[in-house]
Amino acid sequence: MKSKLVPAIIFGALAGAALSMLDKQTRQHTIETSKKVKETVSYYSQNRDELQELIETKMEQAQSLYADVTNNIASIIEHVDDAKTLPNTVKSLVTETKDAFSKSNA
Question: pTM here?
Answer without folding.
Answer: 0.51
